[in-house]
Each structure stands twice: as C-alpha cells, then as structure tokens.
Write a structure and sequence with these properties.
heterodimer, A: mainly alpha, B: alpha+beta, Thrombin, subunit H, 3 domains, six-stranded antiparallel beta barrel, six-stranded antiparallel barrel, 12 strands
C-alpha cells in the first residue's frame, strides 16, 4: 500500500511538474532521491524508472530520456546511500550531484537545457526544498534510517 | 549464507536496473512515429487527469473572465436601464398627454373673406377653452385661439397675419419665427444668411413660450433665397396642415400654465433689484391677450 502511494505521489508530482515552467524545483527528483535513500533497492529503481516514464509521457519528443536520467539517478543514490546514512548533511551534496547528473544527461541526450537563470533558480529551489520535502516524505511514509 | 543471499539480491537489482535502462534507451531510440504509436494510449490515460485539471483551470479562468465581463456589463446595463427609465419617466412626464390638456373641437365656421385665416370652432369657455390655446391636428400646427365665447371660439390659423410661432429647422436646428407671408405660404423670419436652411427641410415648433409643444410640424421649406434682403434671408414655408380642408382640431393648453402665470405675478410683486426696471411697468398680459402680441401670444 505504501509503495502504491509512493507511485501515486510520483505520478502526481510528474503531472504537477509537467504543467510548470523550467525554473520550477524538481520535486520528482527529490522524491526519487528520498525513496532511493530509504526504500529497498528494487523499488527505488522502479520508482526512478516510473518517475521518468511519467515525465516522458507528457513530453512525447523526449520519450526515454527522463526514464534514463531518473533511473540512473535513483541507482546512483542507491549506491551512495551509505554516505547519507553516515552523515545526513551529505544528502544535500548527493542531491546537488543528482541535479548535475540530471542536467548533464539531459544535455547529452537532448542537446537542450533551460535558460541559464531558469536552470539556476530550479537548482537553487530544489536544494532549498530538499530538507523539507525529504522530511515530509519521511513522515508521510514512515521511513526510518536503516542499514541496507 | 547471508552474504550469498545479499549477493544474489544485489545481482537481481543490477539486472533490474540494466533491463530498465535498456528499455529507456530503446524508447529513446524509437522513431517518433513508433513512440506515438506505442505510448499514445498510456499517455492519454495517464495524462487524462492533467488534461482535465488543465481544462478545469482554463474553464475557471475563462469563467472568471466572463463573470467579470458580464458583471461589468450588468452594471452598465443597469446604469443604462436607469438612464432609460429616467428618460421614460421624464418623457412620460413631458408627454403631451401629461403636460397638456386636450379639447377636441369641430370647425363650424370660417371668416367670410378668405375662408382660411380664421376658423370658428364649436367649443368655448364653458368647455374649458381659453385664449391662446394651441390648435393642432395630426398633421401639425393649425393655429391658436384668439377669442373665446361661451360655446364658440375663434382660431387664428397659421395663414392669419396675426399668427406667429417660434420655430426651428428639424435638420439644422436653426431657430426663427414663422408667420404668414402671402397666399398659402408662411415665412420664417430672423434667419441670417449664413444659417443652414435648405429646400425640403421640415420646420417644427421650438417649444419656447409654452403655447405650442416642441416638435410639432409647421411646414416644409418651399424656397430659400440665396441672397439676403437686408439682414435676413427669405425662407418660404408651405404649411403642413391644409387649412382649407380642416374639419376638426385639437385645442391644447399646458396644464401648468396657471402656475406659470402665478409665478409671473409673484415676480412682478417683488421689488426690482437695484439698477433694473420695475416689472410692474410692463403691460398686463390680459390686455394683450386679445391682441395676440404678447410674448406668449407671439410664439
């Protein structure tokens, strides 16, 4: 049930994100990062894939690109989550790295990026919202720290 | 054993990751046509709520816009309605039936010389007819009462030399005074050469003076002299009413005429302001009524 709700939340966030401008914070990325930190690996991989799929369905020209990006980010966070367990402040660095990966992959795949200021605002807002969203998701789904 | 299980799980996760990665790369590699073909239905189904929400917001904003526009329109309409209601009330108040008293009278006699200058009608003082009541027909101005007996009254027609009426051009609003000229023609006096008058223009009463309501037809301009004779221009007007064939007229009088008379009397009784002539020096209107040369009678 909890996993179904997480998928539903990913779907809703994807729909929300599709209707927003490029400077809107990437809440879906925050969800993927948080789920990848707390959830089991298989589900974290699936969530990364589904998040990308939901976004891609709204952008038919980019079908596959977001799947690839969020899947890679989710998998990368799974691999690096031991670091987050050791020190929570590393989560910000992890999320920043995820953002860099996201835009780098996006540029590599689509040869296009949002305008400079939009990119900066989006990254800034995403990092700013990292902790509140992270905490909110933890509370909503009852995630606890545990050693993988 | 535990390590083996964990290693097995890790391999499974890696396999899942690579499978999904392959799927995403495959999707990215598909042609646009194939992408649309494969994902059109899921996209439609999954994005239906988004489309619905978008439509909802669009509809809401459109409704808000429409509501604002219609509210403004309603207010404007209400203002317009108020305006027209006022106009309707004012026009009802100002209408002839409201402001004037009507008396239908039949023509029972004519002056023996010309048959058109003076008419005798079958209503007099006992029927409420008074001197200076206007005589009109559905065609326009016929004349005015110049003398009233108990049961008969004399009406000076528009073709009477004593008859004058304040008039204006319906088209150009040029004002003047219409009176008898000769034969079956009237003339409009005090028209300056530069005034806009043309043959065929309708001349109506201007309503000043209180005897004739504004807007009654007097006649149509028959001829306009291009050159001025003296200060003014000659304008011949053909009467709207065929006096020779007139059988009945309506005698009308403003209902508030008595009030006007009373206020005039009150003004006369007040001392005149410094430097202005006493109004008492003016001749009494009753003395002039029979002659038809008072301001009211000369309208």
């Amino acid at each position: 049930m909890k996993r179904f709700l997480v998928i539903l939340l990913a779907y809703l966030l994807a729909i929300l994100q599709l209707g927003m401008r490029a400077y809107f914070p990437d809440l879906l990325l925050l969800l993927v990062v948080t789920v990848a930190v707390f959830e089991e690996r298989d589900f974290a991989i699936v969530i990364g894939f589904l998040a990308g799929l939901f976004l891609d369905l709204g952008n038919p020209g980019l079908l596959g690109a977001n799947m690839f990006i969020y899947l890679v980010i989710g998998y990368g966070v799974i691999l690096a989550r031991r670091v987050v367990y050791e020190k929570i402040s590393y989560a910000v660095a992890l999320c920043g790295a995820a953002l860099v990966v996201k835009y780098a992959l996006r540029y590599a795949l689509t040869q296009s990026l949002p305008a400079g200021w939009e990119l900066l605002v989006a990254c800034g807002l995403t990092l700013l919202l990292l902790w509140p969203v992270h905490t909110l998701i933890k509370v909503l789904f009852g995630y606890r720290w545990k050693v993988a | 054993m535990k390590m083996k299980m964990r290693a097995k799980g890790t391999i499974w996760h890696d396999q899942l990751f690579f499978i999904l990665l392959a799927v995403s790369v495959a999707c990215f590699g598909l042609t646009r046509f194939m992408q649309v073909r494969i994902f059109a239905l899921p996209a439609t189904v999954l994005l239906a709520p988004r489309a619905a929400i978008g439509e909802l917001f669009t509809t809401m904003s459109a409704l808000k816009r429409d509501n604002a526009r219609l509210s403004e329109l309603a207010v404007r309409q209400e203002l317009d309605n108020g305006f027209w209601r006022d106009q309707a009330q004012a026009s009802a108040h100002d209408s002839l039936s409201a402001r004037y008293r009507f008396q239908k009278a039949a023509v029972v006699g004519r002056d023996p010389q010309t048959l058109v200058r003076t008419l005798i009608v079958d209503k007099g003082l006992l029927s409420g007819v008074r001197v200076n009541m206007a005589a009109i027909t559905d065609a326009g101005v016929a004349g005015k009462v110049i003398e009233a007996g108990a049961n008969l009254s004399y009406v000076a027609t528009v073709l009477n030399p004593r008859f004058k009426v304040a008039a204006m051009n319906l088209r150009s609003r040029v004002a003047g005074v219409v009176g008898f000229r000769e034969g079956n023609l009237l003339t409009m006096d005090y028209v300056l050469p530069e005034m806009d008058m043309a043959r065929g223009d309708t001349i109506i009463t201007s309503g000043t003076g209180g005897v004739f309501p504004k807007g009654l037809r007097i006649g149509v301009i028959e001829r306009v002299d291009s050159a001025a004779r003296g200060m003014f221009r000659r304008v011949d007007v053909k009467p709207a009413v065929n006096i020779a064939a007139l059988e009945r007229v309506f005698l009308i009088e403003a209902k508030d005429w008595d009030a006007v008379q009373r206020s005039r009397d009150e003004v006369r009784e007040q001392p005149a302001p410094r430097g202005q002539p006493e109004l008492k020096q003016l001749p009494e209107s009753s003395q002039l009524e029979r002659t038809g040369v008072t301001g009211r009678g000369n309208e």
